DNA sequence: GATCCAATAT
DNA sequence: AATATTGGAT
């Protein structure tokens, strides 16, 4: 069984989110309104945010922007004293979360660290803490179901493993991403890896507009709007365990910045990015949203 | 004082 | 049900 551990681990490593993969994710989390409000027109963002290709499927459909009930308060109030809209954990965001936890190792996987690794702008420690709490419960449940200690980690893809036990309705979100075995049995720290996190722009929806693409993390509907950013600089100082350190994990806070230097931001075809979101159970073809259209769809 | 975590509230 | 907020413990 140890061997298996190493095995899957290797696999895991290979599947680690590469910068390229992480990139696509970063798009749409921010609404144009917000961007404008903050004067953030980072060239990079500009490109990423408004992909020329008309293929702009109605992300709005699943854009968790759920409701922008038309409150109509088109306000303009400064982003002060505004409440953050509820964060919606999409499969993509969750994936990022799981990856972060996996890389950190159960021991170091605490909200703050996870948040830093995820490097999603706008994500708060509380957001992560809350999600983590639930995720832990999920792991326990799965562990319990595992019962015989047989395989354990199956994900939604296999389609069979634990599907039988719990209700299908069981955390479909969690089922969308594989659960690393060590999660199930503590005791192993894990190696130090770099998760080159590309600065991920934010999330949080703010207002409604016509077709917007916000997918990854969307936000519920706040009565108010707009919100802001908080300066939380990330500093990595694992004072306890030595070894893992990220040279550049600083989340890109607001800073207008101008890095048009010679960085050919070539986001080569983001490709379809459709990863393992499958898990179609016999319920009717549950399809997890397709990631961003990235152009070919 | 910061942050974790479990409980509790919305 | 999912996420946020609170409160006690480290």
Automatic annotation (TrEMBL):
Superkingdom per UniProt: Eukaryota
SUPFAM superfamilies attached to this UniProt entry: Homeodomain-like (SSF46689)
PROSITE patterns registered for this protein in UniProt: HTH_MYB (PS51294)
Keywords carried by this UniProt record: Nucleus, Transcription, Transcription regulation
Pfam families: Myb_DNA-binding (PF00249)
GO cellular component: nucleus
Domain HTH myb-type: 89-140
Compartments it resides in: Nucleus
InterPro entries xrefs: Homeodomain-like_sf (IPR009057), LUX/BOA-like (IPR044841), Myb_dom (IPR017930), Myb_dom_plants (IPR006447), SANT/Myb (IPR001005)
Region feature (Disordered): 40-83, 276-297
Residue ranges the record marks as coiled coil: none
GO molecular function: DNA binding; DNA-binding transcription factor activity
Chief site of localization: nucleus
Keyword presence, tRNA processing: no
NCBIfam families, per the entry: myb_SHAQKYF
Keyword Nucleus: yes
Record-given protein name: CIP111-like protein
């Amino acid at each position: 069984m140890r061997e298996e551990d190493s095995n899957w681990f290797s696999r895991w490593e290979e599947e680690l989110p590469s910068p390229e993969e992480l990139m696509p994710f970063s798009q749409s989390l921010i609404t144009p309104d917000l961007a404008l409000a903050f004067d953030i027109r980072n060239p990079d963002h500009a490109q990423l945010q408004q992909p020329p290709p008309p293929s702009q499927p109605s992300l709005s459909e699943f854009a968790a922007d759920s409701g922008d009930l038309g409150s109509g308060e088109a306000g303009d109030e400064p982003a002060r004293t505004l409440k953050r809209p509820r964060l919606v954990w999409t499969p993509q965001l969750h994936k990022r979360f799981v990856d972060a936890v996996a890389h950190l190792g159960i021991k170091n996987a605490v909200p703050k660290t996870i948040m830093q690794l995820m490097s999603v702008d706008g994500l708060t420690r509380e957001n992560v803490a809350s999600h983590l709490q639930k995720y832990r419960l999920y792991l326990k449940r799965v562990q319990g179901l595992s019962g015989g200690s047989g395989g354990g980690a199956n994900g939604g893809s296999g389609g069979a493993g634990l599907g039988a036990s719990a209700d299908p309705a069981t955390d479909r979100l969690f089922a969308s991403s594989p659960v690393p075995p060590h999660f199930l049995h503590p005791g192993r720290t894990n190696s130090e890896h770099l998760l080159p996190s590309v600065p991920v722009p934010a999330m949080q929806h703010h207002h409604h507009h016509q077709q917007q693409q916000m997918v990854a993390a969307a936000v519920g509907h706040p009565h108010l709007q707009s919100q802001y950013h908080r300066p939380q600089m990330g500093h990595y100082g694992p004072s306890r365990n030595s070894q893992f350190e990220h040279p550049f994990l600083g989340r890109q806070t607001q800073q207008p910045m101008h890095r048009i230097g010679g960085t050919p931001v070539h986001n080569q075809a983001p490709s379809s990015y459709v990863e393992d979101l499958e898990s179609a159970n016999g319920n009717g073809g549950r399809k997890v949203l397709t990631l961003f259209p990235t152009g070919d769809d």
